[in-house]
Amino acid sequence: MYAKVKKSLPEMYAFTVCMWLKSSATPGVGTLFSYAVPGQANELVLIEWGNNPMEILINDKVAKLPFVINDGKWHHICVTWTTRDGVWEAYQDGTQGGSGENLAPYHPIKPQGVLVLGQEQDTLGGGFDATQAFVGELAHFNIWDRKLTPGEVYNLATCSTKALSGNVIAWAESHIEIYGGATKWTFEACRQIN
Predict the structure, then answer these.
(1) 25, 80, 180, 192: most buried, per Cβ within 10 A?
(2) What DSSP assignment string belongs to 33-78?
């Protein structure tokens, strides 16, 4: 089960990716999303596999993220990154929980790839491994071509009316094609918060 985003990504020198998710899978929730380009299946991947912590991969370079999310509750997560020095930040439920640098520095995210939610790609748009599939619910997946501020991330995590939609990928049903029995549901986490 997975979803394919109908749009590709442009070349990006910075990004923020945010989403809501709910999972109680152990060990590891699987692949939240993967973006593959010709010649590089791991251009941009967010995965928690086996007993490893959540990791973000950019051009096959890895940073470990401090997320604890497999408790069966809705969580909001964001990762920001900039090509300058490969600086990244990780946010869970509106609070920064980790940061680092030297993650694929000076490597822009390449355009014209395939963006898949819920599966890790070993080839462009395919080569899926069932053991790496996401097990849970995912909603409000958004990508921006810049680093969001802590305040902007907080607005998203608290369901503020000031929350921004992604300027590269905005969560909209029309942009998502589902496969393999995945289902679409109305997202309830913001109603539960407010």
Answers:
(1) 80
(2) EEEEETTEEEEEEEEE-TTSPPEEEETTEEEE------SSSEEEEE
